[in-house]
Amino acid sequence: MKANYHTHTVRCHHAVGDEREYIENAIAAGMKILGFSDHSPWPFSAGYVSSMRMGAEELEDYTLSVMGLREKYKDKIRIRLGLECEYFDGYIPWLCAACEKYGIEYLLLGNHFTPDEEHGIYN
Q1: For residue 62, which of 27, 96, 99, 24 has the smallest C-alpha distance?
Q2: In the beta sheet, which residues pair with residue 114?
Q3: Helix (H), strand (E), coil (C) string for 57-109
Q4: Exposure winner among 41, 57, 83, 117, fewest CB in 10 A?
Q5: What is the pLDDT of residues 27-67, one digit of tens each?
Q6: Tens-place pLDDT, residues 60-91
Q7: C-alpha 116 chain-centroid distance
Q8: Which residues pair with residue 43 across a beta bridge?
Q9: What pTM was computed for the model?
């Protein structure tokens, strides 16, 4: 089965195009499943803004957008909702609550920073 579970949106600041373009290109390529897994937001300390992920205030829009497109394209491709995230121990309770609240179906591990983005280095 042709599937891609690692698709970002412009919310991560390093992808281009909109979600519909990704879906339509996936359909044209014969994909059966397209999973969106934009970089997870984190509840960073006041004032810290990531240059490579959506802000926490964008998570609801991200999920609503993907879920709306899932419905629109349901007869052509299976759309999945996920996040790419690091394992930042102090943020895991927040992540679990966000996944439950927004119906996140899967997580991809992409550990980009040690010990975390706010205080660490990019690996």
Answers
A1: 99
A2: 121
A3: HHHHHHHHHHHHHHHHCCCCCEEEEEEEECCCHHHHHHHHHHHHHHCCCEEEE
A4: 57
A5: 999 999 999 999 999 998 778 899 999 999 999 999 999 99
A6: 999 999 999 999 999 999 999 999 999 988 88
A7: 18
A8: none
A9: 0.91
